[in-house]
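Lab notebook page, bench 4
Experiment: in silico fold of construct C2
Operator: M.H.
Input chain length: 128 residues
Purpose: comparison with the prior construct
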Amino acid sequence: MTEKMHNILLAEDDYFIKKAYTAGLTHAGFHVFVAGDGEEAMALIKKESPDLILLDLILPKKDGFWVLQEIKTDDALKHIPVIILSNLGQPKDITECKKLGAVDYFVKSDTPLFRLIEIIKKYLQSPI
């Protein structure tokens, strides 16, 4: 019996980070959808209903705070775990995201990709 391939939505506007994360996550066995701004992220989330969302906070058009709030107030989407990946590391940003419903929060520069993959696997194996 083969294991289900999990779908992950990566909402990130930085070209290098998009490429690196997509390659690493794909290599780890995930199917990755990439959105470059908040509006595109919401459209893809509604269309693809991913198993987990990696969300940057600083995005063009609509920011990550808006996307997170939209996800967590939508009955069809609110069950999807959202992990924040941002360069914003202020306690107020972390607190706000947790309050809005993010399951975890990581500062990009402090979190190597291999560690992020371990964390993603943990969230996908356990019920939220």
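Observations: The chain has five helices and five strands. Strands lie at 7-11, 31-35, 52-55, 82-86, 104-107.
Next step: discuss at group meeting.
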